[in-house]
């Protein structure tokens, strides 16, 4: 069992860890990775600044080409990870060329060029742990499956080359009477998607979700007794609750059809940092009550 | 002619200025005002942080009840206005009680209570001046009318008590071939709505605008020769270009149906600050090219 962010990164770096990071290094902040050609970096920063709920930017390379030094976007946490190598520290990577997936690899040392900039983006593992702690464990966690993720018709605020993107949401079903508590528990997780974006059956239509029974990413959500698929108003008393999802920026990059080499972590194979959830989200020390929250830093 | 932010505030404060501030104190940053009971202030800050394009928060009262001291949210500009009184410095105010408009007044000294918090929100005057300077003056400016504003079906990311809100957009028609330059000129105005949110006739449907010929706020937009109303694909070669609009947070407050007394500036009757556009948006010194841009400060 890998217990710290550093141990997880080193295991990835040396090739001994190749599987998803869910459940590893509990309480250490995990992050999505996206690596872009430097000429698109300013537009991507702007995209994140304009869409902080689905695209919460945590950190980026200190300069084009830099893979061991990060500029943190959390003012209270200038050092998110001391010993880091963005080319090796995720257990698995994906490589895209001119917008198309071309490879899944253990590292991206060969692909990383002098003009690549890495971006770390917040992930929902932090608030899922808090939901579990509040007796509101998401069903996919209980069932050991991936969360269901959907495209919506909700436009992202565009930024330069990044046009035509829409918000991607993750979905966790909850009883109607629990939605208030679910909102309260997740509200303070401002840099990891925060409180839900929408909830209830009407929201499926309002968000323009094509088919709640067929998520575009992840697994279909099972009914509570695992005997069926949670996908309609079926009298179970659960409603879908939607959050902004870290797939959004990757999807926006694909939609923009960027030329050149783009890289990211393989889904579920996150980069784990040194900073801990309760340091970034102080409300975790206060039984879920929201205290000071941390937001976006200036766009550079 | 009132030439500075301070002169404009003092003229409002003493009652000699009672008309809209458009065109006054050129190059000084103008701001929307919203005043809420303190118990709703944390949720409102979160609403702005989660929706920075339509709700760009510039500053807020340093503490509940404070109307002469502001906490700036622009890190590079700790003092947005040195001598300010939020109760008097807009030329005209609106007062709402339990969600309903109850009065339009010259000042809100009588209504301002010990637990009221004022919020200043970015306004589009800054980028309209830049568009004019680039030979792209918005048509409503040329025609001396108010900009057309529309409700959309695009959901705001909710925040605590603020649920059910949608993005409000302003619309300025441009020739298709000019949209690229319009985007480039406005892109750097990150704290005053920035580049367009959407454009083109398809966007009218995608945003869920009910009737482009009937804006919910402001004036209908005239055709270039003023002989008709710009409201359909009429062969003129112009398309609607939409920006996030500062009416959004007021609309969100109304939709939330907050109990108690809420106040704001009367439309067009802004509070003018000491800081100048080219100080906040350094790209204005560089012929419209986007340089460093300033984003949102941490949520307190």
Task: Characterize the structure shown.
Chains A, B: GO terms for molecular function: D-glutamate cyclase activity. Chains A, B: Keywords: Lyase. Chains A, B: InterPro entries: D-Glu_cyclase (IPR009906), Putative_hydro-lyase (IPR038021). Chains A, B: Belongs to the D-glutamate cyclase family. Two copies of one chain form a homodimer. Chain A folds into two domains: 5-125 and 256-286, PSTPO5379-like (3-Layer(aba) Sandwich), CATH 3.40.1640.10; 134-247, PSTPO5379-like fold (2-Layer Sandwich). Helix content of chain A is 20%, strand content 25%. Chain A is globular. The first copy, chain A, starts with a helix and ends in a 20-residue tail after the last helix. In chain A, strands 1, 2, 3, 4, 5, 6, 11 and 12 form an eight-stranded antiparallel beta sheet that branches. In chain A, strands 7-8-10-9 form a four-stranded antiparallel beta sheet. Chain A is built from eight helices and twelve strands. With 300 residues, the first copy, chain A, is α+β, with helices and mostly antiparallel strands.
